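Hi there,

I know you've been waiting on this one. I reran it after we fixed the sequence typo, so this is the corrected version. Both the input and the resulting structure follow.
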Amino acid sequence: MIGPDDLYEKGIVTIATEPGEHLETLSLVLSAVGIDHWLDPSGSSLLVPVDREQAARFHLEQYRLENRDWPLPAPVSHRTLKHQTFPALLGMTMLVFLYGYTGPWSSAHHWFTRGMVDSAAILEHGEWWRLFTALTLHADLAHLLGNCVLGGVVIGLLSQMLGYGFTWMLLILSGGAGNFCNIVLRQHPHASVGFSTAVFGAIGLLIGLTIGRSASPRPYRAVLLPLGAGAALLAMLGSGGEQTDLGAHFFGFVIGSVLGLLLGVFRVFRQLQSRGYQPYLFLIVLLALFSSWYAALQ
């Protein structure tokens, strides 16, 4: 029996040991770049000259990277697309109905006094629910419409990629975490409301996922849509003033980007992206928000 050392002495090295059909594909790759190679008699190994080993490994690795998501998933059916995007519309509709009840920002309104981000109440009195209830309140109509229109587009895209339940869970987590980081790092009392922190988290998620999942060395064109949505949202909200919280937007975006890269590059939590989990994850999100408001209004 000829072992690896014997082959090496003959000036030949094994660079791949895979099922036969895979080796045939790798053989085509090496033929395309002009590297001499052979299949061993058993058909289970791919052999190349020792002096071409590094070049062969490089081209095979490039081929694997470029085809890591191949074959492509089956096209999403209209029914599946509707199933994944409907909850995004439902969530935006709930924000509209709540705004219809609360109206614009008012420091005298019970829902704002109990639900807005209040740094002193959160850090000194432990009113954690404000990190999440504030996401459902809006300062004015422009604030609401910007989040619903542009946020709805980005959230709809994320829902198709990750599933609607998992998407909403990540949005609430990035929004709440963004609010918390913002108040911790501020040096003075602070109050704010708005779903825009979660929307910027969604933009970060989409960018992180796009970069992490792309097999192309230049995936940056694909991030123009989420970046454009973020710029448009900032333009609608304004870049300053008491109703615009750039700190929360920034932290929401950063946290969303980190989560997106983790999901895209390391493929963590893939099981939670399966279709069967989505209704349960979405229900957990609704229960978390209702529980937060229940705690706020007690």
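Quick highlight: The longest strand covers residues 12-16.

Best,
R. S.
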